[in-house]
Write a structure and sequence with these properties.
The structure is a single chain. The protein is an alpha/beta fold. It folds into 3 domains: 4-164, Thiamin diphosphate (ThDP)-binding fold, Pyr/PP domains (Rossmann fold); 187-346, Rossmann fold, CATH 3.40.50.1220; 362-555, Thiamin diphosphate (ThDP)-binding fold, Pyr/PP domains (Rossmann fold, 3-Layer(aba) Sandwich). Strands 2-1-3-4-6-5 form a 6-stranded parallel β-sheet, sandwiched between helices. Strands 9-8-7-10-11-12 form a 6-stranded parallel β-sheet, sandwiched between helices. Strand 13, helix 16 and strand 14 form a beta-alpha-beta unit. Helix 1 (4-14) packs across helix 2 (29-37), helix 1 (4-14) packs parallel to helix 7 and helix 15 packs across helix 16 (392-400).
Length: 556
């Protein structure tokens, strides 16, 4: 008779799961023993939320659901930020928490709490199985929930006795992975988009994470080339079409890339593929969009369509399927020459790039953030996976570094929880052992999961961590200076800690950089290192364009 652990692990394996991210605890001992015996790799972290972030990162990197497992009660509460982050970013992953013995529920048993109520508001699906024989059903149900429609987190809290309980009969273990339903657009919607494209003189295409989850990189590039329109990418769509492509002009975020702001304000048609019209696109409002521009939005979730901006066409369908249909229609039509419009967009991007170049050429001590990225873009391997964390230091790099390959540009996500970059970077190094995972973070953000430097060393993951150390919470410090110029900053200062020595203390390697001239050698050492390597760079706390935008907006 199989145990609940065996039913659970074998059901996961049928969904293609070959690794689990965890922090061990009493509720998990049996199921982790079974997982290891069944050939599933187990990666353990120093904080439960980091385990969830690693599973989240694995999902983003591979576009297949990752699995986290933590113990119950405090392990469960510690995992909450990871679950909320993944769900807000529409990441289809399975979060599992152990739980106290079901026979002792509500009797003040050790670590007994209502775990389900705590997680229901931050997941797409959540359940507590009542019998071990039903575990295969709940695995299947979780995958159906996380993958159909807008992706999200499925959560199971499983009482410890269900893992050890044995069964005479049970729900059948699924025979094949749950597939994704890919809806196609209607003929009338396709015709309407074709009419808009024919009439448009200055169209712009914006691609977001929905295009990435759909696997639409080939179709997106073909669509951009057929339309002859500028493309801006954001979130997981960064790198789906390389920034080196003549029609891809980088980040869609106008606070980071002023070229995007210029193009969207001049456009007469915006086609948004797999991206919410949220704060990143300023809710589709006049702060970024031309008020007279017509808008087309493609999204798998119907409630997203037209939520913050009126649409000419809203298409509830899979991004890749929709682009395939549109490309087939465009193949039968004469291409429109939009070279003049492309030239205007390129000029706008080049103008802002020249401003940043002038700033880069200006000496400063401590060095400016742009000096770090100027050296880094000359040193970073082209196949590196860049994992961006939080900090004002980070925002400069999001403009200065190019996204060249699909799935190699990882960002915090819409919840913007700090510290996420390091756990995701660990997953990237596991997935791609022959190329470098590069975590770029501020000194404040690093502190959230600094214990995972130990995880990197313990698991033999030679990633590179670059810390812009300005001795403070840079974004909030700059905002307080801008909002309250007559007052001192409050709760914004940190020590300029030697994080390179912290990495060395865990068993890795590192470099302390205090001048611009030291950067090339430090990066060379980092990218050649066979151990985890942290570059601790002393920088000036200068506000980024991202922060300055918020100050200027409040001033208006």
């Amino acid at each position: 008779m199989p145990s609940g652990s065996e039913l659970f692990v074998r059901s996961l394996a049928r969904q293609g799961v070959d690794r689990i991210f965890t922090l061990v605890g009493d509720h998990l001992n049996d199921v982790l023993q079974v997982a290891a015996r069944e050939g599933i790799s187990v990666y353990d972290t120093r904080h439960e939320s980091a385990a969830v972030h690693m599973a989240d990162g694995w999902t983003r990197l591979t576009r297949t659901p990752g699995v986290s497992m933590v113990t119950g009660a405090p392990g469960h509460t510690n995992s909450i930020t990871g679950i909320a982050t993944a769900n807000a970013t529409a990441v289809p992953m399975l979060s599992v928490s152990g739980m106290s013995d079901s026979s002792l529920r509500d009797r003040f048993a050790f670590q007994d709490m209502d775990q389900l109520k705590l997680v229901q508001g931050i997941s797409k699906y959540a359940a507590v199985p009542a019998r071990s024989s039903q575990l295969p059903f709940y695995v299947k149900r979780s995958y159906q929930a996380m993958l159909h429609g807008r992706p999200g987190v499925a959560h199971l809290s499983i009482p410890v006795d269900l893992f050890t309980e044995r069964n005479d009969s049970h729900y059948p273990i699924p025979t094949e992975p749950v597939g994704i339903l890919r809806n196609a657009p209607s003929n009338s919607d396709v015709d309407s988009v074709m009419d808009l494209l024919l009439a448009a003189e200055r169209p712009v295409i914006v691609a977001g994470s929905g295009a990435y989850w759909s696997g639409a990189e080939t179709e997106l590039q073909a669509f951009v080339e057929s339309v002859g329109a500028p493309l801006f990418t954001t979130n997981l769509a960064r790198g789906m079409v390389s920034d080196e492509h003549p029609l891809c002009f980088g980040y869609a975020d106008g606070t980071i890339n002023r070229g995007a702001e210029t193009a969207l304000r001049q456009s007469d048609l915006v086609i948004v593929v797999g991206k919410r019209l949220d704060y990143g696109l300023r809710m589709g409002g006049p702060q970024l969009f031309n008020e007279r521009a017509k808008t087309v939005q493609i999204d798998v979730c119907g409630t997203e369509l037209g939520l913050n901006r009126s649409l000419e066409v809203g298409i509830q369908a899979d991004a890749r399927t929709t682009l395939e249909v549109l490309n087939a229609e465009l193949a039968n039509r004469t291409p429109v020459d939009r070279s003049s419009w492309i030239g205007e967009v390129r000029h706008g991007c080049d103008t802002y790039a020249a401003e940043v170049a002038r700033l880069t050429a200006t000496p400063r001590s401590p060095m400016h953030s742009v000096h770090v990225y100027d050296a880094l873009r000359r040193s970073i391997p082209s196949d590196a996976t860049i994992c961006w964390d939080g900090g004002d230091f980070v925002h400069w790099g999001r403009f200065m570094l190019q996204a060249r390959h699909v799935g190699r540009w990882m960002r915090l996500g819409s919840l913007a929880g700090l510290g996420v970059g390091l756990p995701i970077g660990l997953s990237a190094q596991i997935l791609r052992p022959d190329s470098k995972s590069v975590v770029i973070t501020g000194d404040g953000s690093l502190g959230f999961y600094i214990g995972e430097l130990d995880t990197a060393v313990r698991l033999g993951l030679p990633l590179v961590v670059i810390v812009g150390n300005d001795g403070g919470w840079g974004v909030e410090r700059e905002l307080q200076r801008g909002f309250y110029p007559e007052s001192d900053t409050v709760a914004c200062e940190l020590r300029r800690t030697r994080y390179d020595l912290v990495m060395k203390g865990f068993g890795g390697d590192g470099a302390h950089v205090t001048s611009r001239e030291q950067l090339p050698d430090a990066f060379k050492r980092a990218f050649r290192s066979e151990r985890p390597f942290l570059v601790n760079v002393e920088i000036d706390g200068a506000g980024s364009p991202f922060t300055q935008y918020q100050i200027d907006r409040r001033a208006r």
